[in-house]
Amino acid sequence: MSRVRLAGGQEVRGLARVEGPLIAVQGVRNVAYDELVEIVAPDGRRLHGRVLEVDEEIAVIQVFEGTAGLSIPETRVRFAGRPLEIPVAAEMLGRVFNGVGTPIDGQPAPLPERWADVNGAPINPTVREYPRQYIATGISAIDGMNTLLRGQKLPIFSGNGLPHDQLAAQLARQARLGGAEAGAEERFAIVFAAMGIKNDVADFFRRSFAESGALVNVAMFLNLAADPVIERLITPRAALTLAEFLAFEKGMHVLVILTDMTNYCEALRQLSSARNEIPGRKGYPGYLYSDLASIYERTGRIRGRGGSITQVPILTMPNDDITHPVPDLTAFITEGQIVVSRDLAQEGVYPPVAVLPSLSRLMKDGIGEGLTRGDHPHVASQMYAAYAHVQDVKSLAAVIGEEELTKVDRQYLEFGQAFERQFIGQGLEEDRSIVQTLEAAWKVLSILPQDELTRLSDDELAEHYGSTEGLAYT
C-alpha cells in the first residue's frame, strides 16, 4: 500500500499490545477515529492502518497488511492527522488495482487528479434526484422483468457454486446506458471490485474483460483470498471513492459491481471478534446494518450534476438462506434484489434468475413510453401473473397428474417451460436489446389463449399477439 499520503504528525515508539490484525498504542493525544496511521516495523517495513477506537490515551489501530513481525518495544507508529485518502483520476479506467488502489497490472501508477477520502461524503437527501432512466444489461430477466435504473442499488443474491461470477462479468461487458436520453455525449464507466476471491476467479475476470474489449472502460479493484483480510474492508470503499470522482466531478454514469459482499461481512465479523465485541446475529457485529448502509448509500444522482452511481452488490447466501443476516440486511437497505435459482441452474438455464422472488422497486418509474417501450409495463405484469399461475398448475399436476389437466392448464405448463428456456435462458455471450427482450416476451405469451392475457390492452394484443412466430430464441 504505497500510494498513501502522510503528513507530519505525532509519533509513538512501542506498542501496548498486539492482538491479531489490531495493535494498541498508549500515550497519544488528539487522535481521531478513522485517522490514517503509518507503522514502521523493526525490519524497516512500512505498514499502514487506521484508528478504530480511541479511549483517553490509548488508540486501537487496524493494520491493513497484518501484524506479523511487529515487535512491541521497537515498532514506531506515526499518526497522519487525516483519514485514509487514495489518489483518483479518470485515467484509472482500463487499469487493475489491489484492494487499496495500488496498481497490480505492471504499469506505472496513474497521476492523481486529487486525493479523496475513502469514506466518501454523504449525499444530502434534499439534492438527490429520483432515478428515471434505465441501464440496459442485455439480460432479459433483468431488463424485461427487473429493470435497473441509473442511481439505483440492486443486489444479486446467489449461492455457492452458482454462476454469479459469470453473471457479474456479463453485466460488466454488456451494460450500457438505455433510454431516449442516452446521448453520445454521455459517458458510461464500470468500477468493478472483488473481495476475497481466488486467483483463478480473478484471472477469469481480467481475461473476460480484456478479450471482450470492455477493460478500457473498467477500473478493477481486486482483493484476493490470500490478501490480508483487513484490506477487504477498504476495497469497496476505495472503488466507490473512484466512482464518486468519475460521477460527480467528471459527469460520468458509473455502474459499480461489488462481489462478494459476504466475504466483506466475514472480514468484518473477524475484526469484530478480534476487538472482543459482543456478537449479534450469527456472530456478526451489531453494527453490520449501519456498516453495509455506509457502502450501499454511496449511490444515486445529485440534482444539477450529470453523472450518477448505480450499484449492483453480489453476495452468496450461506446454505441458500435468504434470511441470513447478510442478504436480510442488504434487502432492507437496497431497492430490490435479483435472486439466482439453484433449481434453474441445475436444469441448465443461464442466467438462472428466479423471477418470482426477484424485484426492482424502482422499475415502474423507468419503463414505458419514451423510456423503454409503451407495452413494457403491461408485458412485465402479464409475464409475472402467468408464471405465478404456472407454479399453481405444477402443484395441481403433482396431485392429479398432468393428463388430467385442462387444455388451458397444459398451455400454461408449455408457457412456463418456454418462459424459462427462451425468455430467461440466453447464452453467456448473448446481448439482447430491449426490443428483442420484449419480442421474446410476446413470443412466449403467444402460447397462451388470448383471453388469458387480461393485463394487456386490446391495442397491444392487436399489434403484437401472435406476430412473433419468426423469432428464433432457443
Describe this structure in words.
The protein is α/β, with parallel strands linked by helices and 474 residues long. It has 3 domains: 11-83, Thrombin, subunit H; 86-365, Rossmann fold, CATH 3.40.50; 376-464, no CATH class. It is 30% helix and 24% strand. The chain is built from 12 helices and 22 strands. The protein has helices spanning 140-143, 164-174, 199-212, 235-248, 261-274, 288-296, 325-333, 342-346, 376-400, 407-424, 434-445, 458-464; strands at 11-13, 17-19, 22-26, 35-40, 46-55, 58-63, 76-83, 85-88, 96-98, 114-117, 128-129, 134-136, 148-149, 156-158, 176-177, 188-197, 218-224, 253-259, 300-302, 308-316, 336-340, 353-360. The strands form 4 sheets. Strands 9, 11, 14, 16, 17, 18, 19, 20, 21 and 22 form a 10-stranded mixed sheet that branches. A 7-stranded antiparallel sheet has the order 1-7-4-5-6-3-2, with no helix packed on it. A hairpin with a 5-residue loop joins strand 4 and strand 5 (46-55). The two termini are 49 Å apart. Residues 469-474 have low confidence and may be disordered.
Topology of helices and strands:
Elements: E1 11-13, E2 17-19, E3 22-26, E4 35-40, E5 46-55, E6 58-63, E7 76-83, E8 85-88, E9 96-98, E10 114-117, E11 128-129, E12 134-136, H1 140-143, E13 148-149, E14 156-158, H2 164-174, E15 176-177, E16 188-197, H3 199-212, E17 218-224, H4 235-248, E18 253-259, H5 261-274, H6 288-296, E19 300-302, E20 308-316, H7 325-333, E21 336-340, H8 342-346, E22 353-360, H9 376-400, H10 407-424, H11 434-445, H12 458-464
Parallel strand pairs: 9-17, 14-20, 14-21, 16-17, 16-18, 18-20
Antiparallel strand pairs: 1-7, 2-3, 3-6, 4-5, 4-7, 5-6, 8-10, 11-19, 12-13, 12-15, 19-20, 21-22
Helix pairs in contact: 2-3, 6-7, 9-10, 9-11, 10-11
